[in-house]
Automatic annotation (TrEMBL):
The lineage of its organism: Bacteria, Bacillati, Bacillota, Clostridia, Lachnospirales. This is Bifunctional adenosylcobinamide kinase/adenosylcobinamide-phosphate guanylyltransferase. The keyword Transferase applies. It comes from Faecalicatena faecalis. One of its GO terms (molecular function) is kinase activity. Keywords: ATP-binding, Cobalamin biosynthesis, GTP-binding, Kinase, Nucleotide-binding, Nucleotidyltransferase, Transferase. InterPro entries: CobU/CobP.
Length: 131
């Protein structure tokens, strides 16, 4: 499993496509966390907007506490691209605070289980874990 993280609009997906496969979504079977089914994360080559998948799952009442381990078990070769959402002002809305907290926890677990973690800033990837 590979994890690519970074702030909004920093070139994470473009970096992941160059590094891990496929310029077009169909070439590598990329799915968009904004619109894919919850089950696609277990069979796709890569997912971008992972944080939006988390938001949709939480709004649907899905338990995400073991999501990282389920992904690692069912789809160990996946590339996950997620925006870091834990910086800045703490949201006033209770759901938004819980979403931010849970997404951070799941991404921390994904980083632990991943063989490689890259952080992208201004389109430049820096390896935090792995080679």
């Amino acid at each position: 499993m590979k994890l690519v993280i970074g702030g909004a609009h920093q070139g994470k997906w473009e970096y992941a496509k160059r590094k891990y496969g496929g310029i077009e979504p169909a070439e590598f079977h990329w799915v968009d966390g904004k619109s894919c089914s919850f089950e696609e994360v277990y069979s796709c080559g890569g997912i971008y907007h992972f944080e939006l998948l988390m938001k949709r799952m939480m709004k649907a009442g899905e338990d995400t506490s073991h999501l990282a381990s389920r992904i690692a078990e069912k789809n160990p070769d996946i590339v996950i691209v997620s925006t870091e959402i834990g910086y800045g002002l703490v949201p006033i809305d209770a759901f938004d605070r819980e979403y931010r907290e849970q997404t951070g926890r799941v991404c921390t677990q994904l980083a632990e289980l991943s063989s490689r973690v890259d952080r992208v800033v201004c389109g430049i990837g820096v390896t935090l874990k792995g080679e």
